[in-house]
From TrEMBL:
Membrane-crossing residue ranges in chain numbering: 15-37, 52-70, 82-104, 110-129, 141-162, 168-190, 202-222, 228-251, 272-295, 307-324, 336-355, 361-384, 455-474
Residue ranges occupied by any Major facilitator superfamily (MFS) profile domain in the UniProt entry: 15-479
Subcellular location: Cell membrane
Matches recorded under InterPro entries: EmrB-like (IPR004638), MFS (IPR011701), MFS_dom (IPR020846), MFS_trans_sf (IPR036259), Sugar_transporter_CS (IPR005829)
Record-linked Pfam families: MFS_1
Main location, first listed in the record: membrane
Keywords, comma-separated and alphabetical: Antibiotic resistance, Cell membrane, Membrane, Transmembrane, Transmembrane helix, Transport
UniProt GO BP: response to antibiotic
Species, as recorded: Streptomyces melanosporofaciens
Keyword Membrane applies: yes
Topology of this chain in the membrane: Multi-pass membrane protein
Protein's name according to its UniProt entry: Drug resistance transporter, EmrB/QacA subfamily
Cellular component GO terms, alphabetical: plasma membrane
Any one Gene Ontology molecular-function term assigned to this protein's record: transmembrane transporter activity
């Protein structure tokens, strides 16, 4: 193959601003609605049984359609998919903010998930094809990784401010200016190389199997949280998910133009990244959930104060991502950033297992947040870059979608698994300490804290497991210089050549 001079897009750094803005909007939406949910429930008269669907409708559509969205990005072109995703997300947000009843709100949340599934993989794959120089790629993914890791905490802050000082509806309306600015910027400065598209025929059986399998899996964990792990519906959903996803793999190994080329996930390094990121997100989602309730219910913080309490974690993530991960990614193998990063985060999580009714924020919670943010930022950045390093440009959308899928499924698992553990520990503690409790309120609060710490202990173990997987499975060399990643399999090394040519 004759060598071609790599095309360097002169507007790539301007493009990064608008890609990052769109990614921030999607990540914010995963948590910003959580803080507004009690107000929305009271305003619209949403029943306790339907309340969870405000979160679940978004998660099901987003998680179930991500692989399809990634393939559409490769087929249509990433810029076009990106702009369509932005426009649709803004429209769905406007409908949600104006909702007058439960049905409209739930429909709007599902629609947000549909367009989010187009937007998220197209944003990440645009970075993958626009930034090919190793040092520039490190900086670009440093920014992207910081947003992906810290955006959820920013959502808690923004959700608190908007809910407390304006109205819950603004947690939806705030997406509209984000989307408009990002879309105008995308039209003006983003260039999507036409030659990097995958124009193969769409794999319809793969789309149906992957979407239904992922929806069953995410919904299974959601039902486990509310109905229990042994409920018939829960078990049925997990069995259905296993059958559908096994059938999906079988189909993908046989069709000429698969939705998810198995070469994307069978590469040892990308498989290690997807597994470790998914586990890390399980721990992170649990933390957001429990610490938000702990600070508001136990400590009596307002929504705004709760949001700002998470700021040090965001600062730690930005520092770890841009100042450690981005600077060392081109010199140090990814596993030596990901593994230690997840382990540092687990130490921060370990500190948070010590919370009690009268815990001092500066003495315990603050250092825990700082370590957690620093570790996660350091690990996220090289992980997101490595997940799309060495793939053919025509596969960049679906490789990016797999990153988002591992995070989305991880979030669903984390919320259900850790919430179930916390609820069981809370009930057990309340029963065993009922006799000697000074008051019912004190017992209730102490039981809640005990439940949170029990779940956070599990999150510590999950983060340690993520670190171990990163160290043992990811064997790529550093991501600086050359097309191939040292230690990758032969196919990945070959795939890296055309990436560096665009």
């Amino acid at each position: 193959m004759p060598e071609t001079a790599p095309f360097v897009d002169p507007r790539r750094w301007k493009a990064l601003i608008f890609i990052a803005l769109a990614q921030l909007m999607v990540v914010l939406d995963a948590t910003i609605v959580n803080i507004a949910l009690p107000s929305a429930q009271a305003d619209l008269g949403i029943s306790d049984g339907n309340r969870q669907w405000v979160i679940t409708a978004y998660a099901l559509a987003f998680g179930g359609l991500l692989l399809f969205g990634g393939r559409i990005a490769d087929l249509w072109g990433r810029k076009r998919t990106f702009i369509v995703g932005l426009a649709g997300f803004a429209a769905a947000s406007a409908i949600g903010g104006a909702a007058l009843n439960t049905g409209v709100l739930l429909g709007a949340r599902a629609l947000q998930g549909v367009f989010g599934a187009l937007l998220a993989p197209s944003a990440l794959s645009l970075l993958a094809v626009m930034f090919t120089d190793p040092k520039e790629r490190a900086k670009a993914f440093g920014v992207f990784g910081a947003i992906a890791g810290g955006g959820g905490a920013v959502g808690l802050i923004l959700g608190g401010v908007l809910t407390e000082y304006m109205d819950w509806r603004w947690t939806f309306f705030v997406n509209i200016p984000f989307a408009i600015v990002a879309a105008i910027g995308a039209v003006a400065v983003i260039r999507d190389p036409v030659e990097s598209r995958n124009t193969s025929r769409l794999d319809v059986p793969g789309v149906l199997l992957a979407t239904s399998g992922l929806v069953s899996l995410v919904y299974g964990f959601t039902r486990a949280e509310s109905d229990g792990w042994s409920a018939g519906l829960t078990i049925g959903l997990f069995v259905a998910a296993a059958v559908l996803l096994i059938a999906f793999v079988a189909v993908e190994s046989r069709v000429k133009a698969p939705l998810l080329p198995l070469r994307v996930v069978t590469d040892r390094n990308r498989g290690g990244v997807y597994a470790s990121l998914g586990l890390a997100i399980i721990g992170m989602f649990g933390l957001f959930l429990f610490l938000t309730y702990y600070m508001q219910v136990v400590k009596g913080y307002s929504p705004v104060r709760t949001g700002f309490a998470f700021l040090p974690m965001v600062a730690g993530m930005i520092t770890g991502s841009t100042q450690i991960g981005a600077r060392l990614m081109t010199r140090v193998p990814a596993r030596l950033l990901m593994g230690p990063g997840f382990l540092v985060a687990s130490v921060g999580m370990l500190l948070l297992t010590q919370i009690d009714l009268d815990t001092s924020y500066p003495a315990l919670i603050l250092p825990g947040f700082l370590l957690l943010g620093l570790g996660m930022g350091t690990a996220f950045m090289p992980a997101m870059s490595l997940a799309t390093h060495g793939v053919e440009p025509r596969d960049a959308g679906v490789a990016s979608a797999m990153v988002n899928t591992s995070q989305q499924v991880g979030g669903a698992i984390g919320t259900a698994l850790l919430n179930t553990i916390a609820a069981s520990a809370t009930t057990a503690y309340a029963k065993s300490h009922a006799a000697g409790a000074p008051s019912r309120t004190a017992l209730q609060l102490q039981s809640m804290v005990h439940g949170y710490t029990a779940a956070i202990w599990w999150a510590v173990g999950i983060l340690v497991a993520a670190g171990v997987i990163a160290i043992t499975m990811v064997n790529a060399g550093h991501q600086g210089g050359g097309g191939a990643v040292a230690g990758s399999d032969e196919g990945a090394a070959e795939d890296a050549i055309p990436v560096m040519a665009h």
